[in-house]
UniProtKB/TrEMBL annotation:
It comes from the Bacteria. SUPFAM superfamilies: Winged helix' DNA-binding domain (SSF46785). InterPro entries: HTH_MarR-typ (IPR000835), MarR/SlyA-like (IPR039422), WH-like_DNA-bd_sf (IPR036388), WH_DNA-bd_sf (IPR036390). PANTHER family: TRANSCRIPTIONAL REGULATOR, MARR FAMILY (PTHR33164), TRANSCRIPTIONAL REGULATORY PROTEIN-RELATED (PTHR33164:SF94). One of its GO terms (molecular function) is DNA-binding transcription factor activity. It comes from Nakamurella panacisegetis. This is DNA-binding transcriptional regulator, MarR family.
Amino acid sequence: MIASPQPALDPDDDEVTDAVLAAARVLVGVAIRSIAAAEESIGVNQFRALVIIASRGPLHSAALAEAMGLHPSNATRTCDRLVAEKLLDRRDNPADRRHLQLILTKKGRRLVDGVMNRRRTLIKGILAQMPDGDRRQLADVLNEFAQAGGEPAEQDLWSVGWTTQTPDDNGAP
């Protein structure tokens, strides 16, 4: 039996758009819950700063500001809070004495790893409620969606804070 071709979806189809928006709300909720469950009180922007430093290694605040797309003074305030919480450390940079290095502390590393692990666990729990065939189809469709949306290359995911895996000791996902 020959399957009839699927009709092309109209990008203006409200039903499809609404389904994607509903899925996005679920995923944003997962991201927020994964951060909120941390022992430390930390905001999304602060967490993103930790992820960038975790992935790229020691940075100075101007480089962090650029990576986050923030004004340097906003990045400095973010780092001040993270240093106060002992999630980030500032040290002299032996290669450039004009800039202090921002380094993730062990406590900061545990926080990043814990959030990422909770995020994976929450998503796996949601996926477990779906039939096997639907999960496989969802993965294929979401991969196409991510590609159409300009998903960064695999090696860049961690640095923008969107990967679902924790980095190894070298900062790679």
